[in-house]
């Protein structure tokens, strides 16, 4: 290889390294972000609220002659809220959590 070819290859490699250093922060900055609040431009994050447990009893459904099953349930509500101004944003999801404990016996 001649001296001129070595200089040209060195310049090309230097340019590639320089451009790759510039491209990395640009690609990282264009990544996906969370939801932005339309009111104050704050961050919108999910907030979960758990209701109180309510319980009731019914006849044992597990084949035992005596005793009951204790049924417990509560509502779990998740809403997306702004961390800055507290604005709630749809969709709100609400689910029922159920728990059954058998107290039956023969």
Task: Give a description of the structure.
The protein has 106 residues and is α+β, with helices and mostly antiparallel strands. Helices cover 25% and strands 48% of the residues. The chain contains 1 helix and 5 strands, in the order H-E-E-E-E-E. It has one helix at 3-29; strands spanning 35-36, 43-50, 54-59, 66-82, 88-105. Strands 1, 2, 3, 4 and 5 form a 5-stranded antiparallel beta sheet that branches. Strand 3 and strand 4 (66-82) form a beta hairpin. The longest helix is centred in the N-terminal third of the chain and has 27 residues, at 3-29. The protein starts with a helix and ends with a strand.
Treating each run of at least 4 consecutive H or I residues as one helix, how many helices?
1
Structure class: alpha+beta
Taken in chain order, the helices and strands follow as HEEEEE
Helix content: 25-40%
Largest sheet: 5 strands, antiparallel
Number of strands: 5
Inertia-based shape: elongated
Beta-strand level of the residues, as a percent range?
Answer: over 45%
- Regions with little confidence, pLDDT below 50 for 5+ residues: 27-32
Distance between the termini: 94 Å
Mean residue pLDDT: 80
- Radius of gyration over C-alpha positions, nearest whole angstrom: 31 Å
Q: How do the helices and strands line up, and which of them pair or pack?
A:
Blueprint: H1 3-29, E1 35-36, E2 43-50, E3 54-59, E4 66-82, E5 88-105
